[in-house]
Amino acid sequence: MKEELRNLAKELDDVVLHPKRFIILTLLYLSGPLTEGELKSAVNVSWGALTTHLRRLEEHGLIKRRKWLTKSLKLRVFVYLTEKGIQQYIKAIKSLEKILKCIQNSHQK
Amino acid sequence: MQDLKKLHEIGEFALRLKVYKNTLILGFSLYLFGMLIAGSLIVVNSLIDMNLVNSQAALFSILLAIIVPTVLSVYIIVYVFRAAPVVSEKSEYWIASSSIPFAVIYAISSIYCPEILHVVWYLALGLSLLIASTLLETKWAKENKIWAKPYMLSGLLITFLSPAVIYLGLKVQTADPAYLATGLTLIAFCISGTYSIVKAERGLIFERGAKKPS
């Protein structure tokens, strides 16, 4: 059982499963491209922390940033999930499910 | 352990919420498109009937009444509802399904039966919805990205009723069969849109219908 848990734990993606980054990815998954300002107020982090998390996610190819014109004709940086980001996000949730089931089974035994 | 549980609960709910949103938007797109295009066509037709638009500009106005609502619907669905990842997927399929049936059916009927040109769009629309559903909706449903296929339902309803509409178009050479076709289209869109919204609601509430995306 321990061996199985260890193997499953290896599958966990620490980039995706950091609580704040997970919330960022969840918001992007649900609402599509969001500006950095929208993300900052939704996740409730400082600009510095947001930049660090976004950089980490971008380095792993999970998100991309692009400048787009808003309706008020201002240039804003929009953040969006890449295809890899979507796949990794879904995979992380499935891995979590497996781990939680495994832990539950070990408790029952 | 508690943190992992919380993350899992949030993630699990986000996956279901996404499918709910996709299904809702697909149903709502029929309402939006139906209302915009029918509204614009009625406005243009009434302007033509009141002689406020001259006969040379009539065709241009009708084309405008079709193109503007279509572009506006796509803009609202993709950007305002932020449905870009699903709706804009395989945009070439959308373009093919919405243009090929119209081009083929209009070409055939203008050569062999020009009397039904005023109602033939009804059959083309039905086929176009069926093609879009076969190319895109079926794939999304298999991947559990949506819980309903409203385009398939409206395509079937419209295609099933089109022989009657075309027959009436052949018999009655006024604008009335075209109004009938517009009314039937709106009813079909309303039934399919509501079906999609109900399925989305049920999928979100009842665990059994809420499969995770593969």
Please tell me about this protein's structure.
The complex is a heterodimer of chains A (109) and B (214). With 109 residues, chain A is α+β, with helices and mostly antiparallel strands. Chain A has a single domain, classed as Arc Repressor Mutant, subunit A (Orthogonal Bundle), CATH 1.10.10.10. In chain A, 64% of the residues lie in helices and 15% in strands. Chain A has five helices and three strands. Chain A has helices at 2-11, 19-31, 36-43, 47-59, 83-108, and strands at residues 34-35, 63-69, 75-81. Chain A has a three-stranded antiparallel sheet with strand order 1-3-2. Chain B has one domain (2-209). In chain B, helix 4 (91-112) packs antiparallel against helix 5 (120-142), helix 5 (120-142) packs antiparallel against helix 6 and helix 6 (150-171) packs antiparallel against helix 7 (176-205). With 214 residues, chain B is mostly helical. The mean pLDDT of chain B is 85. Chain B is elongated. The interface between A and B is medium-sized, with 22 and 20 residues.
